[in-house]
Design goal:
- One of its GO terms (biological process) is phosphorelay signal transduction system.
- Its EC number is 2.7.13.3.
- One of its GO terms (molecular function) is ATP binding.
- With about 400 residues, this protein is of the alpha+beta class.
- It starts with a helix and ends in a 9-residue tail after the last strand.
- The protein contains 9 helices and 11 strands.
- It has 3 domains: about 15-150, no CATH class; about 175-240; about 245-395, Histidine kinase-like ATPase, C-terminal domain (Heat Shock Protein 90, 2-Layer Sandwich), CATH 3.30.565.10.
- Strands 6-8-9-11-10 form a 5-stranded mixed sheet. The chain has a 4-stranded antiparallel sheet with strand order 2-1-4-3. It has a two-stranded antiparallel ribbon with strand order 5-7.
């Protein structure tokens, strides 16, 4: 018994999520179909019973019309006891003579009642054949309200089961996403932790080289190495902050973008030019500087790949209003088909033979998840290039910058 509980405790629903999804689906279908079958069986039995009641009602009326003596039992026990099945007695010309269990709208006139009876009569004719009392008198009827409600009950129940199944499916998918997020957050934090030691060592070596006799003749190389180490420090900080809420504050957009492309220029093909334009150099927006630089780097690197290491990247910064700042990043690459505009942000989407396809996914997560902004393909033409637009929240008052 103890072993069984251990086996049950070791059951990993996430590992077997596909089987669980199919089990939930099959379970829901079986319950739904079983419910429909069982309810329909009950409905058919009730239909037969109500048919017998109407037949008995018709025979009682026929008996009452022939035998006028001692009708108390027939009237009270048979005719009056029909309190649920709507019936209408009509003559040979189809005009209603009597009716029972028909509910009319309140304050109805005689003409409205007659029209209502005729409408009810048409619906009854579509359901069942009439019962003949004589050559010129017929009884029409339809299902009682209880039977009608019972007919729709299994479909309501099936809808509830389907909703339950969809919610369970969504819950499993959400659990999957949450589990993946926790896994990636844990891996990135551990990676950042592991990078900390060699980075500290590299920074110490750079300080050593700065104070060594070889610094003057290798100054440019040592300074570039220092930039890369500083960049690795920033990347490590980014990874260590994944899973936590970043600090968003007013930053100079022109300066942040400028710093990002100044770092990129010597590290990409010299056949790719990067041009930064802005109608002002003091445009501010709410952002996390480190994460936003990451976005600019990812989009620019994707652009370099799209241009196969040769072309031009143009970045335009526009303060559209007091509320929004636009950053348009255009390239002269191969372009994107219109139907792929949204798919380029999906995880794993890539046109390269090598790569994870996470650059634009990460950019979208940073801009829309952390900055409450937007990023999308603003325009693209095959063979001519693509333009991405980033929308950030601008800073209204200068006091917010200080």
């Amino acid at each position: 018994m103890k072993k069984k509980f251990q086996d049950l405790a070791s059951l990993d629903l996430y590992q077997n999520r596909e089987k669980v999804k199919w089990a939930i689906f099959v379970f829901s279908v079986v319950i739904g179909l079983g419910s429909i079958w069982y309810t329909n069986t009950l409905v058919e039995e009730l239909k037969i019973r109500e048919k017998r009641q109407v037949d008995l009602y018709a025979e009682a009326l026929e008996y009452a019309s022939v035998n006028s003596d001692n009708l108390t039992f027939v009237f009270q026990v048979i005719i009056q006891e029909n309190k649920s099945i709507p019936v209408i007695t009509v003559n040979a010309s189809g005009e209603p003579m009597e009716y029972k269990n028909i509910k009319f709208p309140s304050n109805s006139t005689e003409e409205e009642i007659r029209n209502y009876l005729l409408d009810e009569l048409e619906s009854m004719k579509a359901l069942y054949e009439p019962i003949s009392l004589s050559d010129d008198v017929f009884i029409y009827y339809r299902n009682s309200d209880l039977l009608t409600r019972l007919q729709y009950y299994p479909y309501v129940q099936l809808s509830v089961i389907l909703v339950f199944g969809l919610l369970a499916y969504a819950f499993l998918n959400q659990s999957k996403v949450a589990e993946q997020n926790r896994l990636w957050a844990g891996l990135t934090k551990e990676t950042a932790h592991q990078l900390g030691t060699p980075l500290a060592s590299l920074m110490a070596w750079i300080d050593y080289l700065r104070n060594s006799p070889v610094f003057d003749e290798n100054k440019e190389v040592i300074l570039e190495i220092e930039k890369d180490v500083n960049k690795l420090t920033v990347v490590t900080e980014r990874f260590s902050n994944i899973g936590s809420t970043p600090v968003i504050k007013p930053e100079n957009v022109y300066q942040v973008v400028g710093d990002a492309i100044n770092y990129l220029r010597p590290r990409i093909s010299n056949k790719v030019s990067i041009e930064l334009n802005s109608h002002a150099e003091n445009i501010h927006a709410q952002m996390n500087r480190s994460l936003f630089e990451w976005v600019i780097e990812n989009i620019c690197k994707n652009a370099v790949d799209a241009m196969k290491g040769q072309g031009a990247i143009r970045i335009n910064i526009v303060k559209e209003s007091e509320q929004f700042v636009f950053i348009d990043i255009s390239d002269t690459g191969k372009g994107i088909e219109k139907k792929m505009f949204t798919k380029v942000f999906n995880p794993g989407f890539t046109t390269r033979k090598r790569g994870w396809g996470l650059g634009l996914t990460l950019a979208k997560r940073i801009i829309e998840g952390y900055h409450n902004g937007r990023i999308f393909v603003n325009a693209s033409e095959l063979g001519k290039g693509t333009s991405f637009r980033i929308v950030l929240h601008g800073v209204k008052d200068k006091d917010e910058i200080e």
